[in-house]
Amino acid sequence: MAEIDLSPAQDRGVLKEIIKEGVGDETPTNGCKVKVHYTGTLLNGEKFDSSRDRDKPFKFVVGSNSVIKAWDIGIASMKKGEIAVLTCAPEYAYGKSGSPPSIPPDATLKFEVELLDWCGEDLSPGKDKSIQRFQLVAGQNYANPEDGSTVKIHLVGKYNDEVFEDREVEFILGEGEDVGIVEGVELALPRFLKGEKSRLLIKSKHAFKEEGNSKYKIPPNADVEYEVELQNFEKETSIWSMKPEEKIEQAKMQKEKGTKYLTSNKINLAIKVYQKVPKYLNVVTDFTDDLKKERDSLLVAAHLNLALCYLKTNENLLAKEECAKALELDPQNEKALFRRGQAHLGLASPEIAINDFQEVLKVQPKNTAASKQILICNSLIKKQLAKEKKLYANMFDKFAQEDKQKEEQKLKEQPDVMRETLGEWGQEERPGGRDATAFEKENPNILMLNANGSGEFKNM
Where are TPR repeat segments found (predicted)? Predict the structure, then answer.
């Protein structure tokens, strides 16, 4: 097959001749991990390197500058299973310096390369290939959106090659759930550049999970594909550059937004947003007089609402911690004490929870909810004590039974002298160890000392 000029400048710097066609239509893009076999030679045919001789394929990431420029260009044009010869001019290989001692200066190189396999760039948090990126169009500059950035994207979702959504959407990164953006897309976007267009393969755990999506006719546990273009984004204003009043305003906005998500039962989103409130307010020295009071009030509210969210998601330890933070600012806060009591109940500690509910009544004697919780705590403590009593009683009964069985076993192991044919006398106790006489067998409790006929006791 005729050589193809792959060099961007069409200067014949990277020529490819296909020896064996590959399969499919897809080729690796920047960020993809490839596995190849290769043999490298000089123009005179002298071999300087070969992965085949080592019987060990070579792996690298396309576009990561870990190989010569010609390889990044040439292998990005190959299909899986393809074998091709790449002719690489010096400026696309090792240049004027070469790579002594194998490659001389200004050397043009030939590589016979077989593309064995490749996979997309792994963007998944656990590096388990559950989110793979295949770049279609490179982005501009080096800036990436981050959590809190306002992003504008165009996305096309596919399942089994059928398009199920095609739309432009603008949202705050980290809150995509509010506009139906799957987790996998949100996790990938911080790695996008402005103007980038990429294909994402997303496993079900980062897409529609076990629930599926009836609107899009996607079954449970289904893997999906998205083509995503990051059209534009705008980062959040840096907190350090804000004035105290601006920080207060931003904290209020996040608190109100969190409450909107909470009342809509979007608990995970509410948690994300409430967690932003302390970030604006964590430097106490920024706030004086009335602003400090407002700052403390906003912090207490954020911690209380986070505690409520964690109680709803059964994360009782986190709920307890948020209540503790609220109580540091307001030691007699009725809601903080009550919710911490609920957290202790969730952690199966009614004997600790009851103290919090009793403190609530000291603050507000008419709090009927706290009174009911105290009754619940007492009932649980009573049941717990009864259970422990029964457990210990059973334990002692078991120990007593085991001791009795051991004693009985010891008695069984001792000889029963009243049942032996020799009565209370054993053969070893008769003079000379003789056998019992007929008389002794009939009278087992009598030992005839001179029964051996020795006449030893004749004179007695």
Answer: 300-333, 334-367
